[in-house]
Amino acid sequence: MLVNLPGPWSPFLGRLALSEIPYTNPILAPLFVVIVLAGIALVAGITYYGKWGYLWKEWFTTVDHKKLGIMYIILGLIMLFRGFIDGLMMRTQQTLAVGSGHNGMPVMGAIHGYLAPFHFGQIYSAHGLIMILLAATPLLVGLMNIIVPLQIGARDMAYPYLNALGLWITAAAVFLIMISLFVGDFSHNGWFGYAPIFELAYSPGVGVDYWIWTLELVALGTTLGSINFLATVVKMRAPGVTWTRLPVFTWTAVSANIIALTSFPCLQVALALVGADRYLGTHFFTAGFGGNLMLYTNLFWLWGHPEVYFVILPAFGMISEVIPTFSEKPIFGYITMVLASFAIAGVSWIVWLHHFFTMGMGPYVSTEFSVATMLVGIPTGVKVFNWTFTMYRGRLTFSSAMIWSIGALFLLLIGGLTGMMLSIPAINYMVHNSVFVVAHFHMMLLCIVYAVFSAIIFWFPKVFGFKLNEAWGKIMFWLFSAGTFLVFFPMFMLGFMGETRRLDWPFNLQWAPWFDVQEVGIAVYVLSVLAFLWLIYVSIRDRAENRVGADAWGTSRSLEWITDSPVPFYNFAMVPHVNHRDEAAWRRENGFSDKRPEKFVDIHMPNNTPVAIIIGALTFVVGFGLTWRIWWLTVLALVVTVLVMIYRSGKGDPGYIISAEEMAKMDRESRQKMDDGHAHLPKGGGYTGGTVTAYSAGAGDSGSSGTPPGNSRPLS
Amino acid sequence: MSHGHSNPLQHPEVQMASRSSYLAGFVIASLLMLAATILVSGQVLAPFALLLTIMGCAGLAAIAQMYFLLHIDISEHNIWNTVALVMFIPLFVITIGLTWWMFSQLYMRTMPMIPGMPGMH
Amino acid sequence: MSSAHDKPVNPDQVVLWSDDYEGHDVISTRTFGFWMYILSDGMLFATLFAAYGVLSYSHSYYTGPTPAQFVAPWYTFIQTMALFLSVLAYGFSMASMKTGSKAGVINGMIASMVLGGVFLGLNIHDVLRMISMGITPEVSGGLSAFYALTQVHAAHIFVGLIWMLVMLYQILKKGFTEDVVGRLISLRMFWQFQAVMWVFIYVFVYLWGYMS
After folding, report:
1. Where does the chain cross the membrane (chain A) (predicted)?
2. What domains are there in chain A, each with its CATH number?
């Protein structure tokens, strides 16, 4: 049944051999040394300060949705950085390699530029896969993880243990793709893979296998997470949270997770069939023997297009939370906002063919998919107008979170309009596989990145109890935007000039000036990364001055802003009774903001468990064993996984009870700590230095509200 | 969070189990499968009519099993399961239907059938 | 939008905290989540059906055999009956749980396992017969798709049987606790859903393959 391999194989180590470690590569070898040294320093530091027990007890075994969300976000930011470095390497290669002559660096074994084609292929494949599935997805899942339970008044997700399992399986995927840097190669045929290049005959190495199992692990983790989100929103809403009182972010989380739940199985099947071709010698996607290459492309995009909306919808939700808060108005057109989210989710299922219009299936099919693609513009347009009308005649505060959201709107506009162009088959045939397409989807994905940065700045005080530095948030925004402009606008131009994507050697000398502009853009992006690191450092250093109360911005709207900042592990001392869609705004305007619960009841909380991280580690072993075809290791890890799951199922989790008296005491302490923290700051903790009555009569004349931010508190 | 039901056996989802309903689902599905098998092994109908008939059998058997076995109805305790299923069914149809349409059009243009080959379509 | 703000709110009557909130229903939450998993599993089968649809043209079988040459409808019908009876036995086992009858539940489950085992045994026998005739997944794309669909279903049956074994142990060890009852209901849905999927596989893969 198993196919014959083109290289050596041993029963004990599979395909693994010392020669698979690229210790002669002048980029990877020093990088490996740096990472090992950094790892040793990190381990030594943790050991020196005796923090292993803390990490294990508070983080690695936790089932708390907020901590899991924070770990998701850290994972996402690290991978965002890794993906960015890949992008930097690609840009530099094209800048160096452009032209017709032999301008390569011999020391690197390159004829053009500094990267050999095989190496360049691995970099763009890893860049795409990482950015979409290991950076954007964890960042969004992390934010949803933290905010959704708070917005519906739940103490945790419906299945806290499953939540931890999802995180650790995603982390296993991250480890698998990172280890491919130093052991073996990564796939070189694009993040979505081309049939039949990924067949064993054409890609005999382990790169494609790494790619398959990384994707399978992320798909598994995300599917588990989506079940959890949907069950949480359906079953765990606090009394009073009716469907029409769900905040827009929660609604977009629901629609996004419906997409994830329904589409990720398609990816799992598509890649499992690639795996069957490579491991068992079947003929799903081979060029002969009755296989069909385009079937792979079809199955992949059957998942791939819904996935695009899985990542954009939560970003829309974040913008929908940030803009009303800093416009001091409720969201305009709530119902249409919700319907638009579901319209986008629904249409996302009937547009996937626009990724391969050039397949040749004739005019009828193309027309259907073209029209369906254009339909996406309608609900998206509704959303853009709703955000604009929310800002219209609002009392706008251009805080850093707000300008990131507004920036996202501009990118959405450019990405959306170029998307409309691409939805027309006649245009699509012309620019198919050119960098025009690349520039288009980078606009869309950067729209998500903008929204994520906006959301991180916006919700950071809720989770950590202090605000991020405003000035550096804005500096980072302008640097990042300059980078975006300089890198991707030339890319649109290059697309029109006929540059195809994934060129390791752009031969046309006329493209050179644009590559130089892009290289400058990348340098500005580097500055924005440094600004981000500095932003984090400055904010932590000055945290005492930036402590906030429950309502961190003073103009916040939804339910998460009525509980303490930082959110205690039990979320709400008493489950709130929700009276209004914008509960925090409603309580503030009616003067209930300071009311604490007087009566407490016993609450039931889940215990921490090490099982999730153990299963995560085992899935990594399964993926590694399959990649290198170490059968005994794979089977062993699978069997142990099943046994651990059975053991956990037998043991169960009785949870523990926090008594009412203890709860009352903890609530008092949490309140005291929060008040002490920002006692020296204006009451309310926001810009406006007081309770803002946003849209009731006479709000504009009230002396206690509407103070411009510049007057009440200096920036930075 | 206290638990709503002190005795799990009194939970509505336990109490909704019913021997007669499970038996009905079994009998209906079995008879339909029997009918389809007899029709196919006897080749008594023209191919297209036969195809439509067995598709009907499959659809009815699946509906019977959904209703009698999986309790897909609009009662208070099952409504969310029904809503989830109703959301999924169009996606099943889209996944299979649009793929099939796309590739039948593609094959029409790129794969002329070789006469005399054994085939399904 | 702002209608709620126009009405004056009486601070004495407003309810801000849910004093008598009972919490969520643990069993329903578990079974609803599991039902969503089952539906995503259905999507997995739908994708395999889509692949099978594309790979069941005459050219998909290359020069190798087509299902018309190796499918035996009555043999597979016996498989069908074994699976349906297994599902029925599991249903009866769940009906016994209403009254808390441990013996009824265990007997039903053992019957269900035996019948599920018969289904799996017949499937393995069928696969071995085909392999001995040289009809393997490596022969053609069409056969790859045929094997993928039927054997993924068989793998589900195998997982279900292991799960039943675990549940038998848990019933004996722990009795009908909230966790055990929730898992038994999830398993019921899982097992019944395999019968639904089998209806489509039987009709569209075996019978349709046989007739064309």
Report:
1. 27-49, 69-85, 124-148, 160-183, 210-234, 246-273, 293-319, 331-357, 369-389, 401-427, 439-460, 472-497, 517-537, 605-624, 630-647
2. 51-572+605-609+653-658 (1.20.210.10)
